[in-house]
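Hi team,

Filling in the usual template for the complex we talked about on Friday. All components are listed, including any nucleic acid strands or ligand strings, so the model treats them as one assembly.

SUBMITTER: L.P.
PURPOSE: interface mapping
COMPONENTS: two
RESIDUES: 805
SEQUENCES:
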Amino acid sequence: MLIAAAPLAVMLFLGGCSTNAFIAADPDSAAFLERRIVQKNDEVRIAAAVPDAAETEALTGLPLYSQGIQPVWLEVTNTGSRGLRLLIASIDRDYYSPLEVAWMNRGGYSDKGKADMERWFYENAIDRRIPPGETRSGLVYTHLTPGTKGFNVDVVASDLDSYSFTFFVPIPGFTADYMEVDFAGLYGPQEIETLSDDALREKIRDERCCATDESGTKQGDPFNVVIVAAPLALRRALLRAGWHETEAGSAETAIARLQRYRGRPPDGTFTKSRPDGAERKELRLWLAPATNGGEPMWLGQVVYNFGHAGDDTDDLRVDPDIDEARDYFLQDLWYGQSVRQAVYARAFDPVPEGDPVMTFSGSSYFSSGHCAVVWLSEEPVAMDDVHLLGWWTEEELE
Amino acid sequence: MRACLLAIAAALFLATGCTGMQPAAGSDTPRSAQDEVPPPNDRLFEQTERDIRVTTAVPSVAESSRLFGVNMYLSNVQPVWIKVENLSDTRMLLLPVGTDPAYYTPLETASRLFPWNWIIDRSAGESFSNRKIQFEIEPRSVQSGYLFTRVDEGTKSFNVDVYPISDTEPYRLTFFVPVPGLRLDHYDVEFESLYDKSEIRDVDRAGLIAALEDLPCCVKDRKGKNDGDPLNIAFVGHVEDLYYTLLRAGWDETETLYGGSLFRTGISALFGKAYRYSPVSPLYVLGRAQDAAFQRARTSINERNHLRIWLTPMRYEGQPVWIGQISRDIGIRFTWKTVTTHKIDPDVDETRDFLVEDLAYAQGLAGIGHVEGVGAAAFDKPRQNLTGDPYILKMTFMTSVMKPRDG
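RESULT (copied from the run log):
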């Protein structure tokens, strides 16, 4: 009976206060546009800006962040002589249409308020077609991502030539954990080794298998990936593949921060959640004192969290088959067109499934003892152009 | 009893020996034929390309329950059986991300299905990891087993991507495997027999444009009297190419309306749970209900795109011409005519443009063009569909030419 009454009460409640007017701002004069980022080529110029939660509410009159919706403001100028078409699905394949957002938020508004809202969303949408010499601007409604907003903007010319731009727009008030690390001050110039491929292979084998706890005495999770990449390429690759930054000091990564390499917690932590559940992959990265081919070497732990059993937050369940997480990570960046070259390398002794190792944080793992070594590219690499080196085996080393 | 214990021990040993990707050197030997995981049924789909042969099968709900002792479909897990035969002298890698970008690991599957006791009852996890396909395929050897993917009912469309560890070109095979248990529209329509040979006519570009301009503006109700949603898209392409592209882009076929499906739709509407195959009601063009309907769900039934298509008797450059109507559901609304119906996004052009982009990203479009069809309807003077939903139009028709798969 109670259950049956609840929807009725909600309906009465919604029906009873439909009196609000819709109040929104003019996007063209919004303050957040001062943070716009511009990219251009010979034929097109694109400016992008992303309002934070408060700015979004001031702009649209609606608390869209709390609904998981994040507006992106775009301005596209056709500086060439051909017609251009903006592909909105490039920004978010499952974007919300403007009138959909209005419909979702219609509750509580007067008839005039609803009409004003629909009109505002309709008029502030961005046109897809941009004739030569003209500019179009407007809002696209994407799914909210925590941290720096990373997205592509694809533009197609009338004869199907296309341009792709990648944007990373910082959101004020959000400090990713890696932003608090002074990377330049981590190592002295004499400490950093320059490694050939062979030396890198040896380094991976000789490097300690695993992180430790704070005291440096108890064993933590093993390093199952090694990345060779410039910091920007690394960040782009992760954001392009849908990994999210983690806010400094976030409770989400409290367990990750217990892991230590050279006494430090991870220099950066990224997460990627399942589209259909709570299970989450977690990447913890440390800058190593070494370079290969002029690019820094990173040690990483990729683990797969299945979530918590009930309310017991200490009981975080982790997939003990850490090779699965490693294999997923390699493929994920590969399909994201960020991998230039990859190899599996012997990093530590095999840990059989029947005799897993228990770490200080209470999780256990087993592994073939190989880590994935991934060289990243600044430019997108077609899947077929990835150089697969196969396996670096013990025998080749001796 | 002893035989049973021995079998379990053997299975454990096997699982230990084949964990993850193994190095080439050392004592690891490729699995022999006896180690093969048998297929779940005899509905096998096989493709051979250059140096590999791939066979796949997808168990139904009942078959997977029998195999794994639990209804995995309820937890959105669908096992796909894959056998890869490497006929070359090069080692190869199977990349499961190509099959499902969010595939489940075996232990994750166990954790999903047995959330409370997956650690205590380790046998649950083992029954999945023992039957998982190994990703590495040695030269001249065979790997078979299961990949755990997200559920697709109706036709399961997926790729099997295999990368040789050499400069050889990779293998990318696409499978369409029907899964029993779901009645789908297109199985009831025989496209071949819709039109007599005498009715079929070839049109050139001008003829196609003229014919599309002459079409009725909108879909009709059963009596053919009231105008419904506007016809706003046309496709040129063979039925296989059209299906291939739509499925690749994540569109699902719809279930034919019957009691069970209506019940499931009601449940999903009430609780916001996505039932991706919920039926669509029939709308009429050319004197008949749609030949096929597709939908693409986001997270809830309240946000779906609906596409209905009809085959026309026209052929353009030898390929069939289809007309269609697409709309985006943005919510549920109460009506006196059908009690509840979906609220559609009035900006049907926006929805149509989304479809075109979606198909383009599925690498399925060879070209697009605009045709003037129904007259424009402005924001201030929307027309109404059959259930009284307003819609607005800026432009009208868009023709999409599908890219042949091998072209």
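MY TAKE: Chain B touches chain A through 57 residues (CB under 8 Å). Residues 1-34, 256-278, 335-340, 393-397 of chain B have pLDDT under 50 and may be disordered.

Thanks, L.
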